[in-house]
Amino acid sequence: METYTLTTAGADLVYDVRGPLPTADGHPPLFLIGHPMDASGFAALAARFPDRTVVTYDPRGLGRSSRADGRVDYTPETLADDVHAVITKLGAGPVEMFASSGGAVTALALVARHPGDVTTLVAHEPPLITITPDGPAAVRARAGVRDAYEKRGWGAGMAAFVAMTSWEGEFTDAYFAQPAPDPAAFGMPAEDDGSRDDPLLSDRSWAVSGHRPDVDAINAAPTRVVVAVGEESRTVQTGRTSDAAAELLGQRVTVFPSHHGGFLDGEFGYPGKPDEFAARLREVLDAS
Hints:
The chain is an alpha/beta fold.
């Protein structure tokens, strides 16, 4: 693996390339992206594609990448332009892309803004909360996570986030009537370290989860877009947003093994099924 830094007007973007460029197998590079997950979250998945040239990167302000734009918020458009800059720097033509969570939102914006960058996009569980039928309630639930974080710190915020993302079905009065979850029940610290800069729990990434894809531009692009969902996620928020995103694009979701982090092998907590997940991803990519 070789690591590089690309300096743009607003950020220093660190990216990793596993394998040769140009590629040696006739396939385009496989670019794996997330948000707020950085490249470290894709180590297990990348390892399961030893025959491919795999590219990962840290979004601006996360992991090893710094930002010099004076901002702390994240927008899909800015993140998409960063990914475009890395693809251009690779100089190996359009890529295949697996994008998860907020990275899937970035990737949809990338296809709309830079339609020649990606041949096939697998957009895994994009958390586009405003496009579900209960969008206003989902926005209220998101605000509840931010409020818990602001008032009581990381443990309380993360407990609220877990409660929100594990809730099955639409956000009803029953959801909002629940008492605040106890961080200790989730194995999280109750003490407040004073920080309020977490991109997941603060409002810094609200433009990502509040994004509405440019459907006309995406459908006009030459990119084959596949909206994917984990089999264990079907009834929770990211499963429902995946269904809504697929419907918005005039398709049906493609089911993958496991859950929202199904490509992880346990290094970040609840393990997925990375072997099965990688096999499914390979199958979907090869079907193009």
